Amino acid sequence: MALTPLDISKKEFSRAFRGYNCEEVDSFLEELARDYGSLFRDNQELREKLERMQSELKRFNELEQTLKDALLIAQQAAEEAKKAAIQQAENILKEAENRAREIIMQAEQEVAAAKQQLNFLQEQSEAFRTKMRTLLKTQLELLTETASKVE
What we know:
By secondary structure, this protein is mostly helical.
């Protein structure tokens, strides 16, 4: 059991013949009780301070762990967001490439149809010119025959 300043101040010694001087012993015990009391209070304050510090340390360690966990979660979320963004970009690019191919194919089909139409119209135009030349030649021959007969 720990000795307290009160124990020191209340301590009484039995009297013996030719023992120590009572006044010196009492004076020393009072001084000892004062110094011991001061040390005892300092020790108690330091123990309380140590407990508070240990409690704060525990709280800070828990906070540190919480921050580490939050940072880890944030890093994982950032990685997942980055991967999702890359995947989305790849999907958009593929979709754009597919759409571009479709537009090119459609344009090529339209060009081919326009070429066919042009060829058809050129053939029709040539046939029409040929018919017109033939018709005009025939008409010219008829006119020439008719003019020869009238003269």
